[in-house]
Amino acid sequence: MDRKLLHTPEGVRDLYGRECSDRQKITSLINKKMKTYGFDCIDTPTFEFFDVFSKEISNNSARELYKFFDKDGQTMVLRPDFTPSVARCVSKYFMENDEPVRFCYNGKTFLNTHNLQGKLKENTEIGAELMNDGSIYADAEMIALLVESLTSTGLEDFQISIGDADYYNGICEEAGVDAETESEIREQMTNRNTFAAELVMAENNIPEKYINLIKSVSTCIGDASILDNAGSLVSNERSKKAINRLKELYKVLCSYGIEEFISFDLGMLSKFNYYTGVMFHAYTYGVGDAIAKGGRYDNLLGRFGKNAPAIGFMINLDDLMTALYRQKVKIKADKACNIIEFNDDNFDKCLSAAQELRAEGQRVVLKKRTD
After folding, report:
1. What pLDDT does 29 receive?
2. What is the pTM of this model?
């Protein structure tokens, strides 16, 4: 046998035994918490038309999609993200009135990242989307749900960092930055590479005043007190509105009693350019990246025929499990299997006993005696 066939390709892995069982338990805990907030389940296709995602990501990120063709020559992709798929589905089936729509999901996403990045190419995501509600109360509800979802797993030491895409967008708009240049700047700022972002801005003749201002965005990090400082740096209406909204949001989050988990980061950006307002990431120790990401995307549903505000988040289950293991958070183990040994003479009796125990929800293995 070709030994290569015994191994998985780069970026994917087998899951089995205790690890697989633990993931199912954690997924169940999070889904249960989402149900308490009134969210219903949704399951969208593993692959979609390329156009569902193409306008929402940069050209560089588009190269990371797994693309293939169907028999009619249409370009298809394995989903890199759930949100556009859910937006497409909701726009088609659930937008006949103005009532809020709540959906939660879990499943696989796929990105063909470079092998040297050391990232998985297949990830499991658990997420929630709240559509048709543009209020700060919807923003706060989703952030509170994320906090409660994480604490339901036993995770205690984490922070939700909150930003607003309109703060950065307002500065770019005031500076007269065109869409293509903005995309290049955002790609570098997303990676916190202010040096590369400065080069892009200089090459495109952006005034030094705005180069310094955009670079300074990445330093506006801290508790709620940094909002006043961030507001004093800008003069355009869009950025100022973003700061005022974050201040109002913080008040509502305090009503939820979760302010201990909250911090702010005005330099928070995403390679997915559908975010239009508040954005948030969850960080904890033991993992090098955010274990959860979310934000408001008020323009996305309009691409599918229904203009409506929306906000959502996703939890990366792979990273969450890594954090739980490294922080030694206890995950309740399955009860040990009952072993019932049988021989040819007493099989019926042993089978009856096994079936009774299984009916009670116990785990039973029937094992034939070899002596």
Report:
1. 97
2. 0.89
